[in-house]
């Protein structure tokens, strides 16, 4: 103990703009716990975000922060990391920001294995603009733009990140607050591109349109419909959404490789 | 606004040691979603008439801090002081 997450926020912007019961606040809460427990100085962290409810997170944290273009957070973060490789660069994104508008940046950041920490805050809807379906909404989901239910199948963030080459991939939910903290700690310390997908609730748009109840019911849904990888619960019921660390491996990291080439060229 | 904190100190006995537990609640920040009330294992918390969280049964609190960690509004902080820590200090 001995820390307060209040030391890491810009108190003047609170209470925040997120709706009552929005899961993004739980992610902010536990991400700050992870950073506090790692003991990283505020000056060593850069938080880069795009556009959307989730991206407002960079305004609430007392680090270096960049609020950039929709979907382009990873592109800006890549630039920050290449110019200052010693900084910890954390990129919180919404599901649409990361995988629709920023889908191309996402797969290429995975492929390069650049040392960034991408946090995909997946609430399965575009909340800020009024509840349009996103590429993670999935079939049979109702949204403003799909009033009679959606026909698009969804991405699986974890499989997409693994296939594209990310070297740390984890998934958890806002119900499992200690997992958020542990996975973000591991993702920040991991050398290489790390993706943490966090299933989060949007009671205002996703929950209301799909009759899922309030924030409490949505958290109970996460509790009852997910299970840890390799657990007894998931063996008995393979339809549950798996949580846990899917990939954790070491491969050459982009900025280090870049430095290596630079050195080689200078020696000639 | 900072400084709108309601600090509710409470003394409880648990087993052979006594823990001093303090709930720091920022009323201004609480939006009354009820997550802390529902998931508190001892049902210590309640929403009041203004839909803000209050500590209704402080004597039941074990200091597990689940309410603090699951609060989306960062409105609750639970300070737990153990007896042996107090003596060491």
Chart the SSEs and their pairings.
The complex is a heterodimer of chains A (268) and B (89).
Chain A: H1 23-38, E1 45-49, H2 57-60, E2 64-67, H3 73-83, E3 88-94, H4 95-101, H5 103-112, E4 117-122, E5 125-126, E6 132-133, H6 157-164, E7 168-173, H7 177-189, E8 194-199, H8 203-209, H9 215-225, E9 226-228, H10 232-236, E10 241-248, H11 254-267
Parallel strand pairs in A: 1-2, 1-3, 3-4, 4-8, 7-8, 9-10
Antiparallel strand pairs in A: 5-6, 7-10
Helix pairs in contact in A: 1-7, 4-5, 5-6
Chain B: E1 5-14, E2 17-26, H1 35-39, E3 45-47, E4 53-55, H2 66-69, E5 76-82, H3 83-88
Antiparallel strand pairs in B: 1-2, 2-5, 3-4
In summary, what is this structure?
The complex is a heterodimer of chains A (268) and B (89). Chain A is of the alpha/beta class and 268 residues long.
Provide a descriptive summary of the structure in words.
The complex is a heterodimer of chains A (268) and B (89). By secondary structure, chain A is of the alpha/beta class. Chain A contains eleven helices and ten strands. Chain A has one domain (11-267): Rossmann fold (3-Layer(aba) Sandwich), CATH 3.40.50.970. In chain A, strand 5 and strand 6 (132-133) form a beta hairpin. In chain A, helix 5 (103-112) crosses helix 6. The longest helix of chain A is centred in the first third of the chain and has 16 residues, at 23-38. Chain A is globular. Chain B is α+β, with helices and mostly antiparallel strands. In chain B, 17% of the residues lie in helices and 37% in strands. Chain B has three helices and five strands; from the N terminus they run E-E-H-E-E-H-E-H. Chain B has helices at 35-39, 66-69, 83-88; strands spanning 5-14, 17-26, 45-47, 53-55, 76-82. In chain B, strand 3 and strand 4 (53-55) form a beta hairpin. Classes of the chains: A alpha/beta (268), B alpha+beta (89). Chain A binds chain B through residues 4-6, 9, 11, 14-16, 18-26, 28-30, 33, 174-175, 177-178, 203, 214-216, 219, and chain B through 2, 26, 28-29, 31-35, 38-39, 66, 69-75, 77.
């Amino acid at each position: 103990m001995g820390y307060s997450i209040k030391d890491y926020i810009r108190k003047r912007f609170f209470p925040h703009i997120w709706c009552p019961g929005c899961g993004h606040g739980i992610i902010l809460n536990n991400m700050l716990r992870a950073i506090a427990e790692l003991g990283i100085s505020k000056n060593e962290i850069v938080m880069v975000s795009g556009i959307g409810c989730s991206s407002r997170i960079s305004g609430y944290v007392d680090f270096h922060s960049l609020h950039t273009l929709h979907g382009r957070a990873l592109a800006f973060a890549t630039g920050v990391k290449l110019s200052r490789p010693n900084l910890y660069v954390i990129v919180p994104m919404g599901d649409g920001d990361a995988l629709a508008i920023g889908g191309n940046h996402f797969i290429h950041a995975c492929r390069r294995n650049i040392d960034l920490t991408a946090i995909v805050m997946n609430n399965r809807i575009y909340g800020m603009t009024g509840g349009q379906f996103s590429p993670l909404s999935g079939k049979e989901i109702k949204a403003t733009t799909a009033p009679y239910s959606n026909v698009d199948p969804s991405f699986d963030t974890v499989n997409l990140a693994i296939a594209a080459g990310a070297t740390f991939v984890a998934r958890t939910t806002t119900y499992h607050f200690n997992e958020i903290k542990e996975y973000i700690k591991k993702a920040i310390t991991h050398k290489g591109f790390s993706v943490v997908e966090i299933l989060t609730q949007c009671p205002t748009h996703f929950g209301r349109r799909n009759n899922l109840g309030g924030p409490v019911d949505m958290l109970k849904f996460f509790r009852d419909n997910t299970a840890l990888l390799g657990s007894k619960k998931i063996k008995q019921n393979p339809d549950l959404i798996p949580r846990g660390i899917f990939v954790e491996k070491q491969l050459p990291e982009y900025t280090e490789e870049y430095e290596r080439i630079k050195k080689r060229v200078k020696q000639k | 606004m900072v400084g709108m904190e309601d600090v509710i100190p409470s003394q409880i006995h648990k087993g052979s040691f006594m823990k001093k537990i303090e709930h720091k609640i920022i009323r201004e920040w609480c939006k009354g979603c009820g997550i802390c009330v529902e998931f508190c294992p001892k049902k210590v918390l309640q929403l009041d008439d203004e839909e803000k969280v209050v500590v209704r049964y402080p004597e039941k609190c074990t200091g597990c801090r689940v309410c603090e960690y699951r609060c989306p509004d960062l409105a609750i902080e639970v300070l737990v002081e153990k007896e042996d820590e107090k003596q060491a200090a």
